[in-house]
Structure formats: structure tokens, C-alpha cells
Design goal:
With about 150 residues, this protein is α+β, with helices and mostly antiparallel strands. Helices cover about 30% and strands about 25% of the residues. The protein has one domain (about 5-149): Roll (CBS-domain), CATH 3.10.580.10. Strand 1 (about 20), helix 1 (about 25-35) and strand 2 form a beta-alpha-beta unit.
Length: about 150
């Protein structure tokens, strides 16, 4: 298992993935996620990667914000979590401050995921999204390696 940690993210990351634009309707987001083998969808504003949407985020649409404590839908006192009222991808996107390069070792990427509490990391090169690394991608590789032995 520890040897896998030395491998670079480019060996694990998804290079092909569905994506949405920030103004796409939430119905399109749901359809793309349901038809994908990933639980994460990158969001773009023009050609610029701005963040991602996770399946879990979409559960906010089922919750009536009137039935939960106000502090749950107000983000650090600055405004409403628009995910509960989402009409477009931009209303529910998780802005990404954390990213890795394709050369980042998997053990480092895994530690970042654990430390930051995220299930995926954008893989960037020259400020451009070139891949997505998810916890599932890492675990699938771990299982495949284990089966080879």
C-alpha cells in the first residue's frame, strides 16, 4: 500500500469527465451526475475552472430551508448558502482553493483530502484543469494493485 503512495497523481486522475458551465440549469447538473461514474462535476466560467459540485450538495435541494436552523444556511454570517435555493450550477458550486499538480504524490494528495475534508482534488497545470482526482480513483487503484499480488 505504501508504494502506491509514491506514485504521481497523473496515474490515478480522471482525464475525461463531464463538466458544466456556471449558468447551466440545475436539472442539467443532476442529469450529468446521474449519468456519470463520478460523484463530482467540475464547473467552468468560460474556460476558467471555478469549482465543483458533488452529488451530496444536491441533497440541499430536497431540504426545506424553513425547517432547519437559520445558522445552517447562513455562511459564516456573510450570506445565504444558495445551495438550498439553487437554480443554476453557480448557486451550488464549491469554490476550490486547493489543487494539486499531476506530479503530486498520491500519499500527499490523500493527506490533503483527509486534512481538508474533501473528496476530490482538481489537478491543475498552468492554471488549467487537466484532471480530477477523487477518493474513489485512489481506492480503485489500491484494490487493483492488491489483486495483482
Amino acid at each position: 500500500m505504501h508504494r502506491i503512495g509514491e506514485l504521481p497523481a497523473e496515474r490515478f486522475m480522471r482525464k475525461r469527465f463531464s463538466k458544466v458551465k456556471i449558468n447551466d440549469k440545475i436539472s442539467k447538473v443532476i442529469k450529468l451526475l446521474l449519468n456519470s461514474d463520478s460523484s463530482v462535476l467540475p464547473v467552468f466560467e468560460g474556460r476558467k475552472f471555478v469549482g465543483e459540485i458533488h452529488e451530496l450538495d444536491l441533497l440541499k435541494l430536497v431540504v426545506d430551508p424553513k425547517e432547519i436552523p437559520e445558522e445552517e444556511i447562513i455562511i459564516l454570517g456573510f450570506g445565504l448558502d444558495m445551495g438550498y435555493f439553487a437554480k443554476t450550477a453557480g448557486d451550488i458550486v464549491r469554490r476550490h482553493e486547493i489543487s494539486i499538480s499531476s506530479k503530486t504524490k498520491i500519499k500527499e494528495a490523500s493527506f490533503i483530502m483527509l486534512k481538508e475534508g474533501v473528496k476530490s482534488l482538481p489537478v491543475m497545470k498552468n492554471k488549467r484543469l487537466i484532471g480530477i482526482l477523487t477518493e474513489r480513483d485512489i481506492l480503485n487503484k489500491v484494490i487493483k494493485r492488491g489483486m495483482e499480488k
